[in-house]
Each structure stands twice: as structure tokens, then as C-alpha cells.
Amino acid sequence: MSPSNLLRIILAIAVIGGGILVIMNDEPAAPTGDINEIQPLPEQDDPDR
Description:
Layout: H1 3-25
């Protein structure tokens, strides 16, 4: 196996392993504020454009 292919395999394993680690450690943040509070959108200046 050539050193170039070995380096590519090691790099691919590192990237995939790092991605899995990030996904496993990523905890979604709890929503802040009152989720039942609905605010109207601000009016647009020129909606016909």
C-alpha cells in the first residue's frame, strides 16, 4: 500500500471519527423565553417589489 493511500485512509478515518464525536457531544440548547408568545412580523416597506 503506497504512503499516499495510507495517508488518505488515516485522514478519512480522522474526519469521520471527528464528525461522529461532534454529533454525539452536541446537545441541543433548551428554548429560551415563552414559546407560546407570538409576535407579528414587522411591516415591509415595499411588499410589491
